[in-house]
Amino acid sequence: MAAVTENTNGLNGTNGTNGTRPSQSSNPYQPVPDFLSNVGRFKIIESTLREGEQFANAFFDTGKFQSPLYNVKSTKSNRPSRNKNQDVLPLHSPPASVEYSLLYSARMLDDFGVDYIELTSPAASEQSRADCEAICKLGLKAKILTHVRCHMEDAKLAVKTGVDGLDLVIGTSSLLREFSHGKDMTQITASAIEVINYVKSQGLEVRFSSEDSFRSNLVDLLSLYRAVNDVGVDRVGVADTVGCASPRQVYDLIRTLRGVVKCDIETHFHNDTGCAIANAYVALEAGATHVDTSVIGIGERNGITPLGGLMARMIVGSHDYVTGKYKLSKLKEIEDFVAEAVNINVPFNNPVTGVCAFTHKAGIHAKAILANPSTYEIINPADFGMSRYVHFTSRLTGWNAIKSRVEQLGLKMTDEQVKLLTSKIKAMADIRPLAIDDTDSIIRSFHLEHERLEEAS
Amino acid sequence: MAAVTENTNGLNGTNGTNGTRPSQSSNPYQPVPDFLSNVGRFKIIESTLREGEQFANAFFDTGKFQSPLYNVKSTKSNRPSRNKNQDVLPLHSPPASVEYSLLYSARMLDDFGVDYIELTSPAASEQSRADCEAICKLGLKAKILTHVRCHMEDAKLAVKTGVDGLDLVIGTSSLLREFSHGKDMTQITASAIEVINYVKSQGLEVRFSSEDSFRSNLVDLLSLYRAVNDVGVDRVGVADTVGCASPRQVYDLIRTLRGVVKCDIETHFHNDTGCAIANAYVALEAGATHVDTSVIGIGERNGITPLGGLMARMIVGSHDYVTGKYKLSKLKEIEDFVAEAVNINVPFNNPVTGVCAFTHKAGIHAKAILANPSTYEIINPADFGMSRYVHFTSRLTGWNAIKSRVEQLGLKMTDEQVKLLTSKIKAMADIRPLAIDDTDSIIRSFHLEHERLEEAS
User: How many separate domains does chain A show?
Assistant: First the structure.
């Protein structure tokens, strides 16, 4: 059922702004090339190890952030022993092999191709400081940043860790000025300039960001950005800290700011109102240069622009830039790694890697998809190392459906094994309803178990 | 830990377009009232029972769509018996009481306040036809629509079911014309006019939608919409069937169309590139009148604009309209109901109802949130009957954290019970990693069990 085809997607009507697809005369709505847009040359500041650490269920430390999934070959000796008396397969099998490391995730993100990796402030704790130093010593291609309050003491501590740059931040909304730090705009501007000058004197890259930018006074905000631009900041940051901004507000603010500063513009969008991917996209259209992401979007509350979701959005408009720059085939491994580290399930509706992202069900869709996948797909699953699944069965627990799912998960089983697995899944489904991801876990456990039995025999 | 405060959110910088919040001079970026915008007077076409049925894991029938959660009092007699020898609590306890009914979900959506409920075409199967008739007989406030191909036979069958209106659809992209139905634009226009005239002659409401609108030729599309507008169609529909559209494309197309037709404009956005909520919002800003939604966004592939996510987006700009029209406090029950019916977990990052939507962790956030929740919240959780949680503990399994979570879930337990529960959760976490939603399931199972024991004693 799972078929991989050549990439014929996205030829019509997608955003070709600065992109690489030929403009199609068949759709007059194809945007004309846009001077402002950076859709075809954006950079990613990956903040899983900073914003992601603020996710409720994230407790990153060098001993905790671990995974059996990424490039680590499992060996027999450290496989978990299976209790023969267990009636119920564990939903998540214990790690087959472990490399304990926060460093590991930094290497994964670097390997994926992100431009920057942002870390928690070394002022947060002694462990954060030590982690920061250790990651700087890895010699990654990605530049290492740390996110610090706009205080001289924090900046001095950060400079000593060996990072490539500092992301300075201060709240500028009247609410944050009243209830958080208590400074007025004059004080904010003065301390911003002082800290920026210090960081530059140390030869490091420096960004200055407001917090809660969309609830800040526009005139104050532009004055502040102009002042830091004038002293030579490398980037200014716009942050939708509470997730309130709508796409047209974002476009207008970034476009206005683009006319005020010469430096790069970084953007940071929370997802409280579901617009974090869209807002990042329109910000790039308006002239922003950098987007903050985290893996699966983890962060404060319901998080920020997800790395995978941004890739889904960008590949439609800038296919060659995105596929040429980022190792998209690693996305699923990275997401699985982080999901396991913070004990969440990847959402069923996650762009690209959600269980149903490339599953087609309606009869009319299925027919057209078989004739030409571009009819109902804007993203070619093969670009992400994924495959599509056309849903012919009426129940997920039909063995043909399970077989297709096994193939989609990249596992090898004989038909006899699939039938045995199907009967086990049906038996479990009689005990309690199974979520799709539960079923996937059962499939993986079964596969692991059979692999082990074969090795033993 | 969970505190509910008065609604002081969203006072600054949110989209006041057509909205009800006072315009704040403190933010010059506050949009001025916009003639085109329907952000403050939109209507919802709820399509869980049509688009949602196309979700890979949805198998709706009158015997399957069931729930113990919504307004149904459980009685002792139909509670599941518990196997005393079970070592592991079931993650999802079996339904405590059941009303088997597709009709039930229609009543829930009607009670929530959606304007329309869209059903699968009666031409799909005899069961679909019977369901359609049965739902029409419920006497709901919401208008009942059915979504049918633009064929005279399908339209005649649909009219007989007693629906209030028909949503006609046909593919207009070159891809669909070539690989799906094979008609050219002249044929499409002629059959559209024929079917529309028939439906109007029967006294029913009629919508005509293209499919894959954003990959259709703009001139063809506008010609077709003008033709159906001229014969008196009630609504035209714009559908981003493959989820490729970006917010500014949406705004431009809808604004252009707004100048071409006098009738209402309905929009339908898939979420493949993560923009389904944002696109619905900008479409309303550009003059669209109706938005298609489904509960948790279920639909083909990774789905469409979610009902809850749209509420999160709209309440920020149009607080009084949204809270006055929709029973937001029912959202979580409805989402839990549908999630159970289609065997998915509500995503951890779901707007409003995701486990962490109102959880604050970073020290600086926690401090400000305690002083004034509006500092880091744009949505007041109380508007949705939810509560906030400020994260003080360093591990989820601390008993104080479990206690807060129990309170957040609205369950009553003594401290002794919470401590016992905490020890059980810790013991289970030693066996396998627990996702947050797994932990919630365990908490609910424990609560149900103790309630049952208390009733028995």
Answer: 2
As beta bridge partners, residue A166 has A146, A206
Same domain, B207 and B324: yes
Q: pLDDT tier at B101 (50, 70, 90 boundaries)?
A: low
Same domain for B203 and B282, yes or no, is yes
In tens, the pLDDT along A161-218 reads 999 999 999 877 777 777 667 778 888 899 999 999 999 999 999 999 998 899 888 9
Residues A393 and A271 in one domain: no
| B19 near A CB under 8 A | no
Q: Residue with structure tokens 């690989």? A: B179
Per-residue CA distances from A152 to A155, A158, A176 (Å): 5, 10, 20
Helices (H), A93-184: 102-112, 126-136, 152-159, 174-176
Higher-pLDDT residue of B157 and B23 is B157
d(CA B329, CA B395): 30
CA distance B61 to chain A (A): 12
CATH code of the domain containing B331: 3.20.20.70
Look at residue B17 and tell me if it is in a domain: no
CB contact under 8 A, B93 and A432: yes
Interchain CB distance below 8 Å, A433 and B350: no
B372 backbone φψ class: left, alpha, beta (φ>0; ψ -120 to 50): beta
Beta bridge partners of A360: A390
- Does B72 touch chain A if contact means CB atoms closer than 8 Å? no
Residue A360: active-site member: no
Q: Which range of residues forms the domain containing residue B388?
A: 359-456
| Helices B102-112 + B331-341 axis angle, to 10 | 160
pLDDT tens digits along B164-220: 999 999 877 777 777 667 778 888 899 999 999 999 999 999 999 998 899 888 999
Residue A15's pLDDT is: 39
The predicted structure's pLDDT at residue A97: 34
d(CA B413, CA A98): 38
* CA distances from residue A24 to A11, A33, A98, A321, B241 in whole angstroms, order as listed: 7, 13, 49, 19, 19
Rounded-to-integer distance, Cα B391 and Cα A302, Å: 14
Query: Inter-chain contact B28–A433, Cβ cutoff 8 Å?
Result: no
Q: Write the DSSP symbol of residue A375.
A: G
Torsion sign (Cα): B252, B257, B260, B263: negative
Q: For residue B259, what are the contacts with CB-CB under 8 A and spacing of at least 6?
A: none
The helix/strand/coil state of A52 is helix
Residue A190 lies in a domain: yes
Residue B4 lies in a domain: no
B246 lies in the same domain as B374:
no
All residue ranges of chain A with pLDDT < 70 are 1-32, 57, 59-101, 179-180, 361-367, 369-371, 390-401, 426-438
Phi/psi at A331 (nearest 5 deg)?
Answer: -60, -45
Contacts A–B by Cβ distance under 8 A:
334
Q: Does the beta-carbon distance from A375 to B176 stay under 8 Å?
A: yes
Q: Are residues B331 and B439 in the same domain?
A: no
pLDDT in tens, B278-324: 999 999 999 999 999 999 999 999 999 999 999 999 999 899 999 99
Quick count: other Cβ atoms within 10 Å of Cβ B35? Answer: 7
Pair of tokens at residue B26? 């403190």
Does A290 share its domain with A336?
yes
Q: Is residue B113 part of a domain?
A: yes
Domain match, A308 and A372 both: no
B274 touches chain A (CB under 8 A): yes
Q: Give the span between the Cα atoms of B208 and A211, in whole angstroms.
A: 45
**C-beta neighbour count of A339 within 10 angstroms:** 25
List, in sequence order, every residue forming a beta bridge with A265; answer none if it has no partner.
Answer: A236
Q: Please state the separation of Cα B318 from the chain's center in Å.
A: 18
* Of the residues A300, A315, A342, the one at which a domain ends: A342
Same-domain pairing of A223 and A364: no
